[in-house]
Amino acid sequence: MKIIEENKVYGVSFTTDIWSNQVESLISLTAHVVTSGFERQKLILHAQPMTDKRHTGEHINEIFTKMLTSWGINLTDVHLIVRDRGSNMVKGLNDAGVSNLDCVAHQLHLVESTTRWNSTLAMIERIRALKQDLVVYASDENITDWGLNWALLDKMILALKPFLEVTNKSV
């Protein structure tokens, strides 16, 4: 790739994702490098239809490898791939033998939704359970005000617990 050769880049990181609606699916591949002058460069390499409706790990591996090959990129030149947490994407990239990590933005979108509202309660309960550890950490790091209101967290737990109990009974 020209961007690699011109900037003496020794590894390329990528992002990849699949977008779908009821009719079609597209898979994307974007290259990310830091040049020798410490400038971030990104290049969209592919946004191609997935003509086969299967989103299996094997199919993703096949498409991903073809996308890289079409640009003359060897799997050994891949530094890292950031992808969603879908088991099919994880399997496809693991099978390709490349280093890959979950996208934090995808994880944040899963934190709360109307169908997973009780994750808020679980998060608050976990923070509350870790109170002593968090207080020690804050003290060690000289953090004096971190915006946590322990009394409010306790009230939120009391308010949300009945909803969890009703939800669990109806399941």
Automatic annotation (TrEMBL):
Presence of keyword S-adenosyl-L-methionine: no
Task: Give this protein's Gene Ontology molecular function annotations.
Answer: zinc ion binding
Say where the protein is mainly found.
nucleus
**Single GO cellular component annotation?**
nucleus
Compartments annotated for it: namely: Nucleus
Tell me which SUPFAM superfamilies the record gives: Ribonuclease H-like (SSF53098)
Task: Supply the alphabetized keyword list.
Answer: Metal-binding, Nucleus, Zinc, Zinc-finger
Question: Which protein is depicted?
Answer: Transposase
**Organism, as annotated:** Romanomermis culicivorax (Nematode worm)
